[in-house]
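WARN no homologs supplied; continuing
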Amino acid sequence: MDSITWLLLAIDPWLIAPYRWPSSPLMGYVLGTAFLCLQCTVLGDISSAGVMALNKKRLRQIRRDMDKHQGLSETALKRGDKESYKAVNRQALDAFGHSFSLGAAIFCVTLWPVAFALAWMDLRFAHVGLDLPVNLPVFGESVHYFPFFLVLYIAVRVVYSRFMNRFPWYSLLKARLAGLQVKG
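OK structure emitted
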């Protein structure tokens, strides 16, 4: 981690500011971590959009291959040509595998900011636990920054996704970047 400590220290004033907005340390920790999770989510979303834009042709080709082979396998199945169906279906499954793998890789791109956020949180909060009002079986009476960040990050991603998908321009942009045919 020493190799990125200089970077984490350089962005520290930007990252710590939301933690200091409320006067309550507990509210500051919750708000600051939520804001950090939002920054990771937005930066990850922008990064995945960039990767999709760079791979637009490949995404479209994979989509065309999947559609073509699916259509051919359905036609062969309707005609009762079992051998053709199996051969074309194998190609369709191969195209689906490529699509799935590329989709998983693009999802992984959304997570890179989390590593930096957790490294920064380790610098700031490694020896600080968030006191809980109850004693939980797994955590005890306090929770470390990592599980707190993880639960909050997942919640922020879900809310962000639901919120952003309400905007037609966002859904249209994502579809276009993914190489899907869209009207409008």
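The mean pLDDT is 87.
OK
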